[in-house]
């Protein structure tokens, strides 16, 4: 009987050693829908392992995570929500604002399906933050979920784009490369076999 890895959950090939260990100064908070914790296709969990200043918090409508609230109230941070809306501005403008005020940009990402993210925002009166959107021509390479909407990036791709915006292109590429490895490995695992080495190239 094949036992799944307790960390990555895969049976035929452990993915843990492939997770990049990054040092980029990206302050990132993932506000996760409860369903996302159960999804094998979730990419946010890998960011928590890869980025030194990334944390995940369970979203609850009436009870905001205390640790996240503490960070939101820290004057040393400039907190913004990565969420394209009619009120959102390019992330570059927010980065300039943070720099002008001597603050550290703190990015919050709603981690869930697009429908879940809209619900989370609508029902979180406490999440009253500036909205920012990414200005990128990148097309999502994420292939693990059905009905992906055009122009939407998965959580790991969002983090990769943010790293580019704070001038960390090599670390951004490391995340992109890992996403490709993760998708191929998970698809092989669900098919009941180990990923062949040549499939990684």
From TrEMBL:
Residue stretches making up the DTW domain: 1-191
Keyword Repressor attributed: no
Alphabetically, the GO molecular function entries are:
tRNA-uridine aminocarboxypropyltransferase activity
Question: What keywords are assigned to this protein?
Answer: S-adenosyl-L-methionine, Transferase, tRNA processing
- EC number(s) for this protein? 2.5.1.25
Uppermost EC category: transferase
GO biological process terms held by the UniProt record: tRNA processing
Query: Which InterPro entries does UniProt cross-reference here?
Result: DTW, DTWD2/TAPT
- Name the chain's protein: tRNA-uridine aminocarboxypropyltransferase
Q: Which organism is it from?
A: Vibrio metschnikovii
């Amino acid at each position: 009987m094949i036992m799944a890895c307790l960390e990555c959950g895969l049976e035929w090939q452990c993915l843990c050693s492939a997770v990049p260990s990054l040092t980029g100064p990206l302050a990132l908070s993932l506000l996760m829908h409860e369903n996302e914790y159960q999804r094998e296709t979730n990419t946010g969990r890998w960011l928590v392992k890869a980025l030194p200043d990334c944390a995940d918090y369970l979203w609850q409508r009436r009870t905001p995570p205390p640790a996240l609230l503490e960070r939101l109230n820290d004057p040393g941070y400039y907190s913004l929500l990565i969420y394209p809306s009619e009120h959102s501005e390019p992330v570059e403008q927010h980065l300039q604002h943070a720099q002008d005020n001597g603050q550290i940009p703190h990015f919050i990402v709603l981690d869930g399906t697009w429908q879940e993210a809209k619900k989370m925002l609508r029902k979180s009166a406490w999440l009253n933050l500036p909205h920012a959107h990414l200005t990128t021509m990148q097309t999502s390479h994420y292939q693990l979920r059905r009905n992906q909407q055009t122009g939407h990036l998965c959580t790991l791709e969002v983090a990769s784009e943010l790293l580019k915006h704070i001038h960390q292109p090599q670390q951004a590429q490391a995340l992109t490369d890992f996403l490709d490895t993760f998708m191929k490995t998970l698809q092989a695992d669900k098919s009941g076999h180990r990923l062949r080495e040549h499939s990684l190239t």
